[in-house]
Amino acid sequence: MAGPAIELTGVRKAYGGTVALGGADLAVAPGSFVSLIGPSGCGKSTLLRLAAGLEAPDAGSVLVLGGTPQAAAAAKRIGFVPQSPSLLPWLSVLRNVTLPRKVNRGAARRGAAGRGEPPDPAGLLRRAGLGDVLDRLPAQLSGGMQQRVAIVRALALAPDVLLMDEPFSALDEMTRESLQDQLLGLWALQRATALFVTHSVAEAVRLSDRVLVMAAHPGRIVAHVDIDLPRPRDAEMLASGPFHDYEDRVRGLLRDAWSAPDAA
Amino acid sequence: MPPDPRPGRRRPAGPRPRFLYPGLWLPFLVLLAVLGGAWTWAARTWPYLLPPLPKVWSSLAGHPGYYASNAGTTLGEAALGLAIGGGVAFALAVLTSEVAVARRAVMPVAVVLNVTPLVAIAPALVVAFGFGAVPKVVITALICFFPILINTATGLRSVPAAIVAVYRTVRASRLEILWHLRVPSALPFIFASLRIATPLTVIGAVVAEMAAAGGSGGLGTVIATASSGNQLPVVYAAMAVLAVMGVLLLLIVTLVERRALRWHESTRE
Known about the structure:
The complex is a heterodimer.
Chain A: E1 6-15, E2 18-28, E3 33-37, H1 44-51, E4 59-64, H2 69-74, E5 78-81, H3 93-102, H4 107-110, H5 121-127, H6 143-155, E6 161-165, H7 173-190, E7 193-198, H8 201-207, E8 210-215, E9 220-226, H9 235-238, H10 241-259
Helix pairs in contact in A: 3-6, 6-7, 8-10
Chain B: H1 22-45, H2 53-62, H3 64-98, H4 100-115, H5 118-129, H6 134-156, H7 161-168, H8 174-211, H9 219-228, H10 232-260, H11 262-268
Helix pairs in contact in B: 2-10, 3-4, 3-6, 3-8, 4-6, 5-6, 5-8, 6-8, 8-9, 8-10, 9-10
């Protein structure tokens, strides 16, 4: 692919009188992992929803894989992981993963040529450590396992773009780190372009090739930090000096974003 | 409105059958015996208040065919009314949950229908449709229409927005979202409304039969004619049959619900 996988140009979005995004520019290179971090109300979830085609911008343009987000969604090239696992309580784990593949049967025709066979859902679930619970109902799983199912549900589409909205925010610290591990492992298999919204500095630094720092009132991107650390990023690296340096830099930028006088 | 939790549905732990736990059925039997004693005493003291229980029983035992065929008539009206009223309510619930304009048009009419006493509509329907089955089925359909409509509409809209968002990002069609997400989500609400509506249909059928007494039979007609002829045992025998019918219908709904909503039960454990 020639251009960026996700490209926002001068995007504005307001809800009533509240400006959620006041002119956001963003370009995510294919195959890279980019995190959005910022205080509440900085429009990071709005930005993700715009990229998912769930909202339309008031001004500016949103391009996903060179076309509209709607076109990318119609070809099932977008994998979306919401904040809550959002599984259907009456379907087994496996059927929760396979149902999005079954709906919208016309997607294959609209898909880009040369896309390989979609991955085997049961195989992916096994790889995510969920092989023993394929036939369980979501209510029988822990919160961390449910969120893993939600991630596999998105990856089972073999998406070109993976959009994640604070998927780990409801989990405890230990579960969080283990899920970050698993997410990186699964992501490395497909290398989809990933846009990841988070509140956590450590999470953003660990997962990303680039961290975008946002500020609120109005929501905007104020800085970016390229994370130049080798992958895989294991527990050892989390304790290393360079990792902490990146954390400190992002934290400092966030502080500036907090104290910055409101633009607008 | 979430379906109410049902106390008493939980079975005692272990595989032992129910009758081995006298704590479960003994209180009910004791109360039944007390009520029976009070009844017998009252019937002896004021003969016009209550018929003696043995007479009620002998009326039932002496004419089983009579009660059975009239119960069949009432049950048929109730079932047909439930099927029609429930079917229309479901279709309108789907329409109103998908189309906002339809919601604004239908709901006020439904509310007006609901607050109008059906006992008041019944005579008018008898005038309009005669003494046959039609006014009875119409009343029965009307009486179960509103609870099923409201609950189903609420249930269809109960899918969390995040789940809908996931399926919108794969461009699932509205029909697919309706079928795979909304209808299953509505099932607990639909069953809750059936628990309300099923007994109501029997009430509706009986009310209509009483308004058109002397027509094509049914337990309502039996009660109306027997009470005007001062045959209290027959009145109470018909009431007993109605009560048993109501319990059986509720039992059927409960059994179907348990099969259909295994997943929902599991979330309560």
